[in-house]
Design a protein that fits this description.
alpha/beta, ten-stranded mixed β-sheet, 36% helix, disordered N terminus
Length: 481
């Protein structure tokens, strides 16, 4: 099923944001008492405005730690996705607050996500959860969803999300603020950076998503690098136990067992039966790159599976269910964001293009279904093109990248050097997606652990103007330096 991993794989002409008036009214914050640190005060507002005859409404949160001083500029958090909604019960804002001690954090639910209205959402039948569909059925599911959405999805893309951030800042009466954006949220931050938003005095871009790009080949190249790290750690450096390394020569040998004995699980509310073969399991291992510590925990997954297939299968089932559920809830936003790249018309990757095999049919289906969704052939211009003129950034900008991030490949962040000079860049070779958050749990590999420790340290140092100390080893110069 083509969208089973879509949540894990997961216009340059912008109308003036100031031309649209915004109304803020007090609102109850949706967070539970466990969502925020005990010393943090939360104030929420409903933000309402009209754009292109659409009445929009969302929730804004201002989170203020007790030790915040009046002269310290706040941080605006732009979440990823499409689909992430930080102003909700269970919204993970505590980890973001920890990156900016003593600073107020401001965030909002982007257009179209949970907690915002209107929300372009489709209703699906039970077979959405089926493991495999015929191409005809896939096409019908996508076309039916497309035709049921009456909203203009162009109004839900990154440039318009960027405008909403500026509207929010103006409505709150804030004169200056920094920006922390992650994954898809970096697209909005890049538009703000290009527009030189007058209130923005600093930007931190974690896991850069490049506007106008799908990047099938770049993602597969990153997937190769990620799987190679797990292969090396587990089987070459023997971080997996001897019960594994004595039985299997490498990662491909380990996944081969699932061709003769597939992993059988039931998925979703309707208990759909899934049967995972070697390529499915390799794809699942590759999906760990959606976490910063995926390479460190890949060997632990293999070790755990060999020790107890039953309990590990429960975890795999949970991860897959979360991915499919996310895809179903944000289907229109995901397809709207991915289908407008002109790369959808490029040749698709073929078997043999990579070191580690992948599901070629899925790659072909992505291109086909994006064309089905985008029947008007709307194309967003690529943010970096051959005619792009380079300009110095007007504010301090930190760019963080994981070297084996398969969702937003390192190559995309590197391309920024063709548009901007003066970026501060850090690359963590063995980390995956969202490196700013690191991980405090133990991993066996010391180098992976060092890099995980440095991700949040670099963010705090950059935001406070302090030294990077031993984390400076991961700093990289721009292409023209």
């Amino acid at each position: 099923m083509i969208w089973r991993y879509i949540a894990l794989c997961t216009l340059l002409v912008t109308p003036a944001w100031a031309d649209i008036s915004v109304k803020l009214t007090d609102a109850k914050c949706p967070y539970s008492k466990n969502d925020l640190p005990s010393d943090t005060a939360a104030t929420c507002s409903t933000m309402a405005w009209q754009d292109a005859s659409i009445d929009f409404q969302t929730t804004v949160a201002v989170l203020t730690p007790a030790n915040t001083t009046a002269d310290t500029a706040p941080i605006v958090y732009i979440p990823g996705g499409p689909g992430d909604a930080p102003v909700n019960k269970g919204g993970d804002v505590a980890s973001i607050l920890s990156l900016f001690p003593g600073r107020t954090l401001i965030t909002l639910n982007p257009r179209g996500v949970k907690g915002a209205a209107p929300r372009p959402k489709c209703e699906f039948t039970d077979d959405f959860w089926d493991e495999d569909h015929s191409s005809e059925r896939e096409t019908k599911i996508v076309a039916d969803c497309r035709d049921s959405v009456t909203l203009n999805l162009e109004r839900f893309d990154a440039p318009h999300l960027a405008q909403d951030v500026s509207r929010m800042i103006e409505a709150l009466g804030i004169k200056r603020a920094g920006v922390f954006a992650i994954s898809y949220g970096t697209e909005s931050a890049l538009h703000l950076l290009t527009e030189k938003a007058p209130w923005m005095d600093m930007a931190i871009l974690d896991s850069v998503s490049l506007p106008g790009v799908i990047g099938s080949f770049e993602r597969l190249e990153a997937r190769d690098r990620f799987l190679a790290v797990i292969d090396r750690l587990c089987f070459t450096e023997k971080q997996c136990p001897s019960s594994v390394t004595s039985q299997y020569e490498d990662l491909l040998d380990w996944t081969a067992q699932f061709d003769s004995a597939p992993l059988e699980i039931d998925l979703g509310p309707h208990k759909k039966e899934w049967s995972l073969d070697s390529k499915d399991m390799l794809e699942f291992v590759a999906s760990l790159a959606s976490y910063p510590d995926g390479a460190g925990y890949g060997p632990l997954l293999i070790e755990a599976f060999e020790a107890s297939q039953k309990s590990t299968a429960v975890w795999i089932k949970s991860e897959l269910e979360n991915g499919v559920k996310y895809a179903s809830e944000n289907f229109a936003l995901l397809y709207g964001a991915f289908s407008d790249s002109d790369e959808r018309n490029l040749p698709t990757p073929k078997a043999g293009d990579t070191r580690y095999p992948f599901k070629v049919d899925d790659q072909e289906a992505f291109a086909r279904l994006f064309r089905v969704w985008n029947k008007d052939n709307r194309t967003e211009k690529r943010f970096i093109r051959a005619d792009t003129q380079k300009r110095p950034v007007h504010i301090p900008v930190l760019v963080l990248s994981g070297g084996v991030d398969t969702l937003t490949p390192l190559k995309w962040a590197t391309e920024l050097d063709r548009r901007f000079s003066g970026l501060t860049r850090f690359v963590f070779p063995h980390l995956g997606h969202a490196v700013a958050f690191g991980k405090d749990a133990d991993v066996k590999d010391k180098e992976v652990a060092k890099q995980l420790n440095c991700g949040p340290k670099v963010v705090r140092a950059f935001a406070s103007g302090k030294s990077y100390n031993d984390c400076e080893r991961y700093m990289r110069k721009a292409l023209d330096d």
